[in-house]
Amino acid sequence: MVFDAPPATTTAHAWMPSSPCGSGCIEQADRVGTVLVIGRLFAVLGLLFSFPLLHVVTPRGKRESLQRRYAGMLLRCLGIRLRIVDNRGTSAPVGYGTGGGVLVVAGHIGWTDIVAMASVQPLGFVARADMVDWPVLGGLAKLMRVIPIEREHLRELPGVVDQLGQRLVAGDRVGVFPEGTTWCGRAYGYMRPALFQAAVDTGTPVQPVRLRYLDRNGAQCTVPAFVGADTFASSAGRVLRSRGMVAEVVLERVQEPGTDRRALARRCEAAVRGATPSGHDARESTEWIEAGSTRVQDPSVGADAADPVRRPRRRPLLRGRGHRTQAA
């Protein structure tokens, strides 16, 4: 059975795409019992409330190790195991790098992406601005020094790129999701080049990461996708009820920044997608992207269009991005 999602559309400006993924992309998975769900929930809350205190009392030199262990425990408490695959062909320790700043790029599926990627090695993120207001996770986002981005306001993008560049120059590892929105994991958008400008400006290497979720049988799983009409509560409940999920984080070969952000974005996209064709090279066509049981139309959207209207700032609802952008 193939789900034909409607074509992607834009809202405030062309840089802010809306994912066509919705509830039809989410498949049922094996579930655990109510008692285990409650146990997982209390374990997660215990970790999230204890981390800020331990972070303060831990010596600065040991905080990175603490953050990695906590992220790993949080992932396990959510019922998700971690699998790391290193395709870089080097003898370097598994991680995003320790010799200076690095920009880490990945496709975006849901809020669990941040936990999975931080379980490999701690890093900051460029994330939606309203995340700092989320229950419990907001405090964690502040400790992770999240760089907030208001996707509705294109004119604020240069400031975000500048902050990102400063963090890279300071030697930080920072993760970004250049698709601009969340997708179900089987279908995906193309990587917008804007945030790659920070790597080009600072000469920072880029680490592409291929992230996907698998069920207990090894098949690709869409349960963690934060799409459509999802709220944080509905998404978290679905994850906590799941059984046997695995977050697979594949480290692909590091890309040198070069001088062209668009070329860098395409190289990283090719690395992240692997052998899976993206269908995004023909920008003017209406190619269909097929993967598993999901089929969506290619959102051929210009990434660098100017912001036509300065819209009033407002705080978005805690809903999946497809729903939020369609309602804007």
From TrEMBL:
<feature type="region of interest" description="Disordered">
    <location>
        <begin position="272"/>
        <end position="328"/>
    </location>
</feature>
<keyword id="KW-1133">Transmembrane helix</keyword>
<keyword id="KW-0444">Lipid biosynthesis</keyword>
<keyword id="KW-0012">Acyltransferase</keyword>
<dbReference type="InterPro" id="IPR002123">
    <property type="entry name" value="Plipid/glycerol_acylTrfase"/>
</dbReference>
<keyword id="KW-0472">Membrane</keyword>
<protein>
    <submittedName>
        <fullName>Lysophospholipid acyltransferase family protein</fullName>
    </submittedName>
</protein>
<dbReference type="Pfam" id="PF01553">
    <property type="entry name" value="Acyltransferase"/>
</dbReference>
<dbReference type="GO" id="GO:0016746">
    <property type="term" value="F:acyltransferase activity"/>
</dbReference>
<feature type="compositionally biased region" description="Basic residues">
    <location>
        <begin position="311"/>
        <end position="328"/>
    </location>
</feature>
<feature type="domain" description="Phospholipid/glycerol acyltransferase">
    <location>
        <begin position="102"/>
        <end position="214"/>
    </location>
</feature>
<keyword id="KW-0808">Transferase</keyword>
<keyword id="KW-0812">Transmembrane</keyword>
<comment type="pathway">
    <text>Lipid metabolism.</text>
</comment>
<keyword id="KW-0443">Lipid metabolism</keyword>
<feature type="transmembrane region" description="Helical">
    <location>
        <begin position="37"/>
        <end position="58"/>
    </location>
</feature>
